[in-house]
Design a protein that fits this description.
The chain is of the alpha/beta class. It has 12 helices and 10 strands. Strands 1-2-3-4-5-6-7-10 form an 8-stranded parallel beta barrel, surrounded by 6 helices. A two-stranded antiparallel sheet has the order 8-9. Helix 4 crosses helix 5, helix 5 runs parallel beside helix 6 and helix 9 packs parallel to helix 10. The two termini are 35 Å apart.
């Protein structure tokens, strides 16, 4: 077995326009002070990384690693959730997601999609230069407006949607394959890949592409009433990345999974700081360790109540306490009987 690496932290929710959150060095210092050992960099945040330079310049990539190393940090991976969203975006989300792209590309869905695809290909090259073998992203959404089958789906709608999703992603998956990097789709409501079955459908249509993998975040499974522990049993071979994010789901006589258009504090399903929700992370870490998961446990902090500074500090401690440092010997070695064929034959009566 292998010991899960960590604690890491996804910088996206903490990055800002004021110091120390507006530079990589500032965020590295902050993360190290909070007790983190690794950071996941949002590739869309130009204060933290120039993705094009990281893809084309080994010198620049080494500078990024040097900044992190100065604070005793490891780069866990790059993330491209915003760009991945724009690879496959239903027109209903054109305006809400328009800000994910540069200003010059807004109100231009075709050029925005082309830019997003190029961004993912740059992320593949940048990941390789940075010594990474995993990348986290979103699948995008062509079919989410049709989640519930009413009005009735026209025959073939869902198949056509997944066929188009695969058409858009295959060149990207192949680009990552050329660089030796896995694509880890975050299984997430609003994405076409939002549960195990949607991932299976997509994976099959890619021809079981070796680079098509998952980022496991149990919070998004809790809010869908999916068994997040059994999920690991089903998909552990494809789980290559792990976000530690807690959640609670408390449906009542007025609302449930869909949330009633309520703010986060009033929804039945809410994200919480690690340890404040309902997720059994002891069981998750045990399961992932048992399946030899060798990636990072990365805090993605989202909580509708707690302030981020406390969430980060407590999150680092929480992950550190949950990591199982695997044993090099069995607990019952003291009474072990070693191989003796003649004894074994006597024991079973032959």
């Amino acid at each position: 077995m292998k010991t899960i690496k960590g604690p890491g932290v996804f910088l996206a929710q903490f990055a800002g326009e004021s110091a120390p959150f507006n530079t990589l060095a500032g965020m590295a210092s902050w993360a190290a002070e909070k007790g983190f050992k690794g950071v996941e960099i949002p590739s869309w945040n130009t204060n933290l990384i120039d993705l094009h330079r990281a893809a084309e310049s080994q010198t620049y990539a080494d500078e990024i690693l040097g900044v992190l190393n100065e604070y005793g940090l490891t780069l866990t991976d790059l993330a491209s959730h915003l760009q991945g969203q724009l690879v496959a975006l239903h027109p209903a989300f054109d305006l809400p997601a328009d800000s994910f792209a540069p200003a010059a590309l807004r109100n231009n869905p075709k050029e925005r999609q082309r830019w997003a695809t190029e961004q993912l290909k740059l992320a593949a090259k940048a990941s390789r230069r940075l010594g990474l073998d995993k990348h986290v992203t979103f699948s995008g959404t062509l079919l989410w407006p049709f989640l519930y089958p009413y009005p009735q789906w026209p025959e073939g709608l869902i198949e056509e949607g997944f066929d188009e999703l695969v058409r858009r992603w295959m060149p990207i998956l192949n680009a990552f394959d050329e660089q030796g990097v896995d694509v880890c789709y975050e299984i997430h409501p609003t994405e076409d890949l939002h549960d195990g079955l949607t991932f299976e459908r997509f994976l099959e249509k890619t021809g079981n592409h070796s680079r098509c993998n998952m980022m496991y975040d149990p919070s998004h499974l809790v809010l869908q009433s999916i068994d997040y522990l059994a999920f690991i049993d089903h998909y552990h071979q494809r789980i290559k990345a792990f976000h530690v994010k807690d959640a609670e789901f408390r449906p009542n006589g007025k609302t449930g999974a869909y949330g009633g258009y309520q703010p986060w504090t009033s929804r039945a399903g809410r994200f919480r700081s690690p340890g404040d929700g309902q997720i059994d992370f002891t069981a998750i870490f045990s399961s992932l360790t048992g399946y030899n998961f060798d990636g990072w446990a990365v805090l993605e902090w989202e909580c509708c109540f707690k302030n981020p500074e406390d969430g980060a500090r407590e999150g680092a401690l929480f992950i550190n306490d949950k990591i199982i440092h695997v044993t090099e010997r069995s607990f019952d070695d003291f009474c072990k009987s070693y191989a003796d064929q003649s004894l074994n034959r006597k024991i079973i009566g032959i």
